[in-house]
Prior knowledge:
- The longest helix has 18 residues, at 96-113.
- The protein is globular.
- The chain has a 6-stranded parallel beta sheet with strand order 5-2-1-14-15-16. The chain has a 4-stranded parallel beta sheet with strand order 8-7-11-12, sandwiched between helices. The chain has a two-stranded antiparallel ribbon with strand order 3-4.
- A hairpin with a 2-residue loop joins β9 (129-134) and β10.
- By secondary structure, the chain is α/β, with parallel strands linked by helices.
- 33% of the residues lie in helices and 22% in strands.
- The mean pLDDT is 91.
Amino acid sequence: MDKPKIAISIPTGIGANFGGYAGDFGYIARRFAKYFHLIINPNAVNGGILSAINYDMSYLEGYLFDKFFEGKIGLIQKKPYETNKIGVIFDSAIPKNILNVHINTLSALKMVQDIDTIAIEYTKKPVGVEIEVENNISYGNLKNPDELLFCAEKLIKKGAQAIAVVCYFNEDSEDENYSNANGIDPIGGVEAVISHLITKEFLIPSAHAPAFLDIDISEKIENPKVSSELISSTYLPCVMQGLSIAPKITAFNEGVNYKDVECLIVPCDALGSSAVLSCVKNNVKIITVNNNTTLNVTREKLNITPYMEFDDYEQCLNILTKEKGLIKI
């Protein structure tokens, strides 16, 4: 029997107390996935060389997440042991020694987990990532976005069912507050720009992994919320693992659509997303959790009445399992 389906949204780049760092929502996602099939953002489960993803989760990038609840697309979930063929794009700005680490990473993923990299494409020009942080929200731009689209199109013609992108980020992307789990992810916003670009154009699962000049493993004991980044020389493994079992994007009336979803769970002060507003319009239940972000888009400001409100995710899980007649362990 299929598990009930729910969606959990943790917007990227807004400093969510849970899910705003380095895979720090992963353990919560796994607890929910014991009882429900989750539709979830990549950034909620990505943790550098680690990933919380499993076959009880549909790994859905933000643009596709919004389109799903708008009723524009449907999803065909992966069956256990069924995987995607992944095409990989590398930014030509990545230094050779750093690129070699990423190539070795792809080889290791193939040897150990049989994650299939069908082909690799390199941009002809540097992508030119530009990072911006304003009002405690991260965003950014690309100088040469067409380079990514050109490479993605070539990979799709070669049979890629999902696209991983690795762009070069310089030292300006470092943020001490974030490293101490006390701030926003400075690169989260522009990473969303990169993945949105490809998913919007091709309606295919896509996710981004940053490449940095410094790939040293930290020897310092830091906040657990960022610990997975401290042990990662590359952030490609979690992206490849997520994309390997990402759902196929299909027409609304094929596969799973928003009508099959029991509820959308969101932070209590991040209610302004397209997905939330679509759920209100389409009568999908909204559940809020006290997971503070740098936003202040609350139920009062939007005149939205959530189906239920919770102090934390554990309380939310307890009530939902009881409501569905499931056994909570």
